[in-house]
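Entry for the shared binder. Reason: the reviewer on the internal report wants the predicted structure included alongside the sequence.
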Amino acid sequence: MNWGGGGECNSKVADWLGGELGGSFSLLLLLGFSPPFSLGSHDSFSYWVDEKSPVGPDQATAIKRLAKISLVKKLMKKWSVTQNLTFKEQLEGGIRYFDLRVSSKPGEVGNEIYFIHGLFGITVWDGLMEINNFLIHHPQEVIFLDFNHFYAMDHNHHEYLISRIQEAFGSKLCTKECVENMTLQYLWEKEQQVLIFYHYPLFEEYPFLWAGSKMPAPWANTTNVNKLLQFLETTLGERAKHGTFHVSQAILTPRVKTIARHLIRGLKNTLVHRNLPMILKWVKSQKPGTMGVNIITSDFVELVDFAATVIALNNLLLEGDRATKHELLC
């Protein structure tokens, strides 16, 4: 993929659902019950974290104490940031699934919610507005927002967050439906572009909140790339045949000793950069389908041609689908 300055990329990638594939597949492109699959980012919001804010409630008490030393937060940032690109830049680069962790700021007045990964990021509202602005200009693109971790949030915080989601996207929100019945054409006709997955019981009370269980994302929790790839293969073989999406988390997770040994280098230089080529090779070997890859997430998505690879594989499958239909007609 041809990334330009500031993460810009060509409009064909930004419109790959509506433009590249044109709705030709009978089932929703991103589901994995039809052949194609899609690309997501891990800790999608972490391109910016606030070193001046308190350490997040997702961290252990010992880390919070250490973080009173200013240098500690600078080092934390090296391991908290998993993306370089903003939401807009990720969307323009073809990312359609977003992995989201959110939190209130303990002690802050009001119910404001922030993205979080060790350190606090931007407000969720600012992120939603950035995403919605992209969707306004790309009306045939469909995205998944997976709210899967909540910290320091009571019932009122959840109600506030859900109201902000509704305010941001309005009629673009996709109401719950049988997964297999959804098609791109169906979403386009209803002008719906956003599927929200909410890993908290309140999802039952809102027609536009899908159960978190509909978006399983098995986690390898390893620093070893060979163990990661084996885990991805195993979990693909075990995925549900019907009724859910499936996320393959192609990410390596540092241990405490990993961070201690490579404190200054950070996540990207220690684990991500040198292992991404092997992960990309695995992606290129995949065949989507009922038991195949559905959505795949990665750190620092711009470092290799993940999006271009996914789109190219989908185009090949689209050609195969057209050839099959032609044979049936003949």
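Summary line for the report: The chain has twelve helices and nine strands.
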